[in-house]
Amino acid sequence: MEDGEKLTETDLIVLGGLVVGSAEGPFYAPGYVAVTDGEIVAVGSGKPNGLTAQKKVVKKNSVIIPGLVSAHDHMYGVLAHGIPVKTNVASFWDFLNLFWWPYVEDRLDKKLIEAAVSYAVVERLKTGTTLIADILEAPKAIPGALDVEAQVLKSAGIRGVLSFEATERLGPDNGLLGLKENNDFIKKMNKRNGLVKGMHCIHTTFTCSPEFIKKCREQAKESGAGIHIHFEEGLYETEHALRKYGKLPAFVYEELGFWGSDVLASQCVKTTVEELDVMAGHGVKISHQPLSNGEVGGGIAPVPEMLHRNITVCLGTDGFIVDMFEVMRNTWLLHKAAKENASVMPAATVFKMATENGASTLGVKSGRLEKGYKADIVVVKNMFPTPITTDNVLTQLVVYGSGRWVDTVVVDGRIVVENGKILTFDERRAKQDCLKAAEKLWEGVADV
Question: What SS3 class is residue 341?
Answer without folding.
Answer: coil
